[in-house]
Automatic annotation (TrEMBL):
Keywords from the UniProt entry: Antiport, Cell membrane, Membrane, Transmembrane, Transmembrane helix, Transport
Protein name: Na+/H+ antiporter NhaC
Origin superkingdom: Bacteria
InterPro entries to which the protein is assigned, alphabetical: Na/H_antiport_NhaC (IPR004770), Na/H_Antiport_NhaC-like_C (IPR018461), NhaC_Na-H+_Antiporter (IPR052180)
Transmembrane residue ranges: 20-42, 48-66, 78-99, 119-136, 148-174, 204-223, 244-263, 269-288, 300-318, 338-356, 377-400, 456-479
Topology in membrane: Multi-pass membrane protein
Keyword Transport found: yes
Name of the gene: nhaC
The organism of origin for this protein: Dyella solisilvae
Length: 487
């Protein structure tokens, strides 16, 4: 009787077919989710598609002789890489809720709108949206709130909705690219293994030139077209903001506090949560009427109302009821729970990415490409082309961030290139080009909320076009390319 256990089956490397199938399934399911559910795809269907694609990858990995314990360990390793990002996202949700309640965001919007004049409409639109997105970290919210009002003004004055939409999207993606409150910025840094503020400083070398190019171009458009408009709509929004909140420069203290902590390199999650708590405490003194309307308990003692307001704003976000849709949509947001869909999406995308990377599928596909990228300029071009290509074929910004970061991380280290070079390139190509693709979730969203087709505003999304060009120029010239010792 032979009691010997059979020798474990040796795992074999993936074939080209093994490597391509999960990506084709991912592209098909992501495309189907966007086609079937449109803007609502990010509310769950897109995440389901990514999880199913991950299951397909798991089946192939098991077929090649690997055991479940290896797959589980790889998944745990992937989730561990984004734990920091998850805490930051939850802190951002809390901050947005308390910044709305404290009047910080309303004050920024109030002063921003007051700057608008007809001759300088396009460049001011770009600057207002850039400032708004930097303060709240969301391109979608900026476009869907301030952007909607600005598009309305363009229609009333006979100014170009396409140029206006391009200016809105350009400004909105400044914050999406470099704001510490942006989940895209946080994810790009985390995936490349870079400190958040190191990543942001690195991004400035492409963000500032691209922003200046866009600003000058929009100024030229504005001076050539001019125009005048009836400011009744703008005045109504300003008056409503002024009646709902005590508008004061002091409301910007939480923003200044956050910037100060960031300069002192306080960990991002701690800095953001500290600013959220400060804004909540200030709201109790600066905006008691806003908290009272939010809680709706007139018989409850004021200190209890303030505590409940801060707690709920951090958990579920602040809710406004001004009667003006643009104002309500801008202010009724935030809360940790608002980040849960994004966290779900990130967990699914990271798990898919690390599995196809750890078990050789990405390497099988990317090795022939890397062999042809002999020079640093070609390497940067390959990163940018891969990120833009994934925005086109996969239709999702997070996949365009995740997969290139996983694909090229080891190659950058092998060539002695600091990881912030990779995070900057992926951010410039993966984040800002997503709204330029009509079937991408970002492009579909922008076209829907602004009422301008993607192909119409695409030539005028100047910041989004200039940013990847800037990162290619850095790669070609070697300017501001930090190097590290080769291990």
């Amino acid at each position: 009787m032979n009691d010997a256990h059979p020798a474990p089956r040796k795992a074999k490397p993936p074939s080209y077919l093994d490597a391509i199938i999960p990506l084709l399934v991912l592209i098909g399911l992501v495309g189907a989710s966007v086609a079937l559910f449109g803007l609502n795809a990010v509310d769950g269907p897109l995440q389901v598609g990514i999880i199913l694609s991950t299951m397909v990858a798991v089946v192939i990995i098991l077929k090649n002789g690997h055991v479940w314990e290896e797959i589980a360990e790889s998944g745990r390793k992937g989730i561990a890489t984004v734990v920091g990002a998850i805490f930051i996202l939850l802190a951002v949700g809390a901050l947005i809720g308390t910044w709305n309640m404290s009047g910080t965001i309303p004050t920024l919007v109030y002063y921003g709108i007051k700057l608008i004049t007809p001759g300088w409409f396009y460049p001011i639109t770009f600057l207002v949206c850039a400032c708004t997105s930097l303060s709240i970290g969301s391109s979608w919210t900026t476009a869907g709130t301030v952007g909607v009002g600005l598009i309305g003004l363009a229609h009333m004055t006979g100014l170009s909705p396409a140029i206006t939409a391009g200016a809105i999207i350009s400004g909105a993606y400044v914050g999406d690219k470099v704001s510490p409150l942006s989940e895209s910025t946080v994810l790009a840094a985390q995936l490349a293994g870079v400190d958040l503020y190191v990543h942001i400083r690195s991004q400035m070398w492409t963000t500032i030139p691209a922003g200046l190019v866009a600003l000058v171009a929009f100024a030229v458009f504005g001076l050539r077209r001019g125009g005048s408009f009836d400011s009744a709509m703008t005045n109504a929004e300003l008056a409503r903001l002024d009646s709902l909140f005590h508008i004061s420069i002091w409301n910007l203290v939480p923003l200044v506090f956050l910037l100060g902590l960031s300069i002192r390199r306080v960990p991002a999650a701690l800095a953001i949560m500290s600013s959220a708590l400060l804004a909540g405490a200030m709201a109790a003194f600066m905006q008691p009427q806003a908290i009272a309307r939010f809680i709706g308990e007139p018989d409850t003692a004021a200190p209890i109302v303030a505590i409940k307001g801060i707690w709920l704003a951090m958990a579920n976000g602040f809710k406004a009821n001004s009667g003006i849709p643009q104002v309500d949509e801008l202010l009724s947001r935030g809360g940790m729970d608002s980040m849960l869909l994004t966290i779900w999406l990130i967990i699914g995308a990271v798990t898919f990415g690390i599995l196809v990377d750890d078990f050789g599928m990405l390497g099988k596909l990317v090795t022939p490409v890397l062999l042809r990228a002999k020079t640093m300029g070609r390497l940067f071009f390959t990163v940018v082309a891969t990120a833009i290509g994934l925005n086109i074929v996969a239709g999702d910004q997070y996949i365009a961030l995740l997969l290139p970061s996983r694909l090229f991380k080891s190659e950058f280290a092998r060539r002695g290139l600091a990881p912030e070079n990779l995070s900057r390139s992926v951010g410039d190509a993966g984040i800002v080009t997503s709204p330029l693709v009509p079937w991408n979730s970002c492009g579909a969203y922008m076209a829907a909320v602004l009422g301008v087709s993607t192909l119409a505003y695409m030539p005028f999304a100047l910041f989004n076009i200039a940013a990847p060009i800037c990162t290619l120029l850095l790669g070609l010239t070697g300017f501001k390319i930090r190097r590290i010792p080769i291990e």
